[in-house]
Amino acid sequence: MNARPKKSFGQHFLHDRRYIERIVDVIAPRSEDFVVEIGPGEGALTLPLLAAAGKLTAIELDTDLIPGLQARAAGKGELHIVHADVLKVDFTAMAHSHGVQRLRVAGNLPYYISSPILFHCVEHAAAIQDMHFMLQKEVVDRMAAEPGSKVYGRLSVMLQLACRVEPLFNVPPEAFRPPPKVESSVVRLLPLASHELHDARPQDVYAVVKAAFGQRRKTLANALKQLLDSDAIRRADVDPKARAETLSPTDFVRLAKVYASRE
Fold it and tell me: Quick one: which residues bind S-adenosyl-L-methionine (predicted)?
């Protein structure tokens, strides 16, 4: 029996076998992998991932879905269900407690809290090998946007400073029950190696990026005036007359370092 999707949880259950198989193919789980699925729902991705890897940890907030998920997975592998809000799950501690260096994370994310989940995962990027998510296409476009794009913004910068973002393919509304009102996309996130990461303080980068895009129509001199004056912006080798949407992620890192030096 199919579960009734709950609007409060933003549930849209994937049911089209063609897209399920494509997602599993791009993840390509192996028996040695520690796979974590966020929001397994009715198990459309859970069961084939479990079959491929032999074991799977699933994080599910909706208690009504757990018994059905356990029943469907019976005899198909080792399924461990964590009943929790994913934003409160410590992925780093999870990896350490299971004696693995890095997790592989996947999921059809609830669209209404996709950005907080992405940022939460990025906080634990050192403990994650890769991430494969189904998201609203508009969000994936923002994640992968380059400087100068109309959709380039805070999400683009913060994710690209931590991961390589690879949009993979789109999924139409009719592949879900109920169909969402938007098109979806599958995206791969590959956390950067330690030598590729910037060395600015995360809180400084966040403060500068948030202020810059909080008033994206204004020049940096105006948008950042509470943090940096024009001379300080120039010391970061950035034009104070430029707008946030034209800066590369590394430009924001330099601004963050100047900001830190002025504190």
Answer: 12, 14, 39, 60, 85, 108
